Amino acid sequence: MQRSQPKLAVKTETATRFRSNCMALTLSGGSIYIDGKKHVTRLVQTDQAGHWYQQNGESAHVIIGANGKERNTTVTDARKLGLLPSVTSIIAILDKPQLTSWKIEQGIMSSLTLPKEENETLEDYARRVVKDSKESTSKAAEHGTRMHLELENILLGRATSTDEVLQPYIATFKKWSDENIEKTYWCEKALVGAGYAGRCDAYVRLKGIGDAVIDLKNRKVNPKSSSPFYEHSDTPQLWAYRIASENPKAACVSIVLASNDASKIMTRTWDDDELHQSGIAFQAMLKIWCWVKGYTPPGCKL
What we know:
The chain is 36% helix and 25% strand. The chain is α+β, with helices and mostly antiparallel strands.
């Protein structure tokens, strides 16, 4: 079904009417009311799960609930089991205004262009709008996951995928790897730090640099942007992995393979001052995370 202009008009700041069925949709206090009747609460759910690890580094992202079924681990579970939050969960405590604005724009565009189906309730339509607004993010995440596996295969000398979509990306990283990586010590290793844990992409020996902890990103690169690297997340993440690794003095290198241009790969070696400042920031983020979540993980020093 093709997208069309929406058949709606703004009634007030909190109410919208569909001319097709004249039902009033009102948002109030996080709930949705249709013709005055409460139908939906928390249409856009907040992800409270996150990634968790046992103190020995084993993943604990899911547990078996009281009903015997597998479910995502929550902070309540973590308190009971003494689990450690992931590095990315801690860094996610930072506000990301640009990302938030982009998500809002996706929601607006979906609501304006996604056609309402015949006899579809506003509640069902609203849920479809939310799902549609997340499509691009989901596809990007799926592509990133697939590429991470292929990059790991290359570093470990394993066979790679024959998927035609992935071939240009694989070729670009393989060429860079052959020219720059002298030895791979390990890939996708769980590291445990003071109050946190996480799975680091790789520890390698780089030509002209030496032993290095590397972080591989397959993200969209804006050609107008001066840098594809994110100082407020990439650097603290690498610092946290390095300090928890067997070589806390290793170099920290970010590698970005552009998801929107398979021929483009960029690297950045973070200097000592950048890493020092990022370490201070990460420790502050961990403390804020503990305060917000009401949980101090084992090994965390507040």
